[in-house]
Design goal:
5 helices, Nuclear Transport Factor 2, Chain: A, DUF6318, single chain, DUF6318 family protein, alpha+beta, four-stranded antiparallel sheet, signal, about 220 residues
């Protein structure tokens, strides 16, 4: 058992490091509001079927040492992030980090993979790190990236990309399994500055590379 855990720890902490490894490896719905009440429905026969009571949405539960996160909302790309503009690129960058956070909480990297290029090295490390953290019945606690600021000069590079800078911090990343804490990787509370180089295609923006400018 001890040897098995040791191998698991080695695989987790040797597996390329995420976005925090971005730094390491690349140096509710609102209240619908009031309004006029709807008019009463017309009378119907006595055999009318009663309207079913809406099922309440499942409650979100963050990950902890006791188990993985539950009922994590899937991030939705805002319409602005689909625009070929400075504002669209900045909104896309914010959504990209939301997709990364979703990966940390669920082990599902498909949302971020769908908006990242196949040659993005940091992205590949992130996929590997998250998928490794969710092997078997294991899970990840933390790792969330908090975006503090986003800016792009929106100037086309010779390679046909646009650059956007993102200032962020990251929570520590804990690796857990049933009854096991494999260890915790440090996050960073001193702001890092990362850069996404993105290209616009008929399908919208996608990240071709992610690098750390300051971290």
């Amino acid at each position: 058992m001890t040897r098995t855990i040791a191998r698991r720890v080695a695989s987790l902490f040797g597996a390329g490091v995420l976005l925090g490894g971005l730094v390491a490896c690349s140096q509710a719905a609102g209240d619908p509001g009031g309004g006029s009440p709807s008019p009463a429905p017309p009378s119907v026969s006595a055999s009318a079927t009663p309207t079913p009571t809406p099922t309440p949405s499942a409650t979100y539960k963050p990950a902890s040492a006791d188990g993985p996160a539950e009922n994590v909302p899937v991030p939705v790309m805002p319409e602005e992030a689909k625009l070929e503009s400075k504002e669209g690129l900045e909104a896309f960058a914010r959504y990209w980090y939301e997709a990364a956070n979703y990966g940390f909480e669920t082990g599902d990297v498909e949302p971020i993979r769908a908006i990242s290029g196949p040659d993005c090295a940091v992205c590949k490390n992130f996929y590997q790190m998250v998928e490794s953290g969710y092997q078997n019945e294991d899970w990840i606690v933390g790792g969330q990236l908090t975006v503090q600021g986003i800016h792009s000069d929106y100037v086309l590079t010779p390679e046909g990309r646009y650059q956007v800078l993102i200032q962020n911090i990251q929570a520590p990343i804990g690796y857990y399994g049933p009854g096991v804490h494999y260890g915790t990787r440090d996050g960073y509370q001193d702001s890092a500055v990362q850069m996404i180089e993105a290209r616009y295609s008929p399908d919208g923006w996608y990240a071709e590379s992610v690098v750390t400018i300051k971290g």
